[in-house]
Write the structure tokens for this entry.
Amino acid sequence: MSTEKQLSLFDLPNNNDSSVSTPDSTSDFSLIPTDAKIPIPSGTYQTMEEIKVHCNQCQRCELGKNRTNAVIGRGNPEAEIMIIGEAPGQSEDEQGLPFVGKSGQLLDKILQSVELSSDRHIYISNAIRCRPPENRTPTLKEIEACKPYLLEQIRLVNPKIILLTGATAVKALTGDKRGITKIRGQWIEWEGRLCMPIFHPAYLLRNPSKEPGKPKWLMWQDIQAVKQKLEELLNN
């Protein structure tokens, strides 16, 4: 496959750890969706389905009042790579799945360009699970209310690599406030895991040039580095 064609396509606790809390031992389990002040200890959820049930009941922030569906994730729940976006948009809210609009289509093509499958190698989620009005950037309060769900998803998937699409996703997980152009393509460590900030596919749609140094060209460099790192990890 030519480079031009490829460009155009575009330690957390173990589940078996007896010291980890479970829903049966968490007295406030049924109250979790009602108030952001109710903690979600690591190990609270045993499956993504349990998270989905709670998120579709959730009122930990104001976004729950207007959602159609909470958006939990798609892909392989045992994937080597987890991709975290910013927030659901209209299509995602309607379908209850992340990255299903034009951005998602481009993301899938980018992954396919290095022979990564969103069904096999990837699990995709967002920093928050409900759509903000008019697709605005989620507030810090909304991110913090929803973050425990995300941390539980990461624990369940247990990925070798986490890709953070855009500055909001980076800030939501790691607290790093730097702009995405300054940190994209760099490997960073978070909680013992390898993470790489990358451009959000929506940004690439707004910047379609494939010339060297442009966002799409840079994304091609980044996704190749991700594939290479994954192969190194799998072979060790």
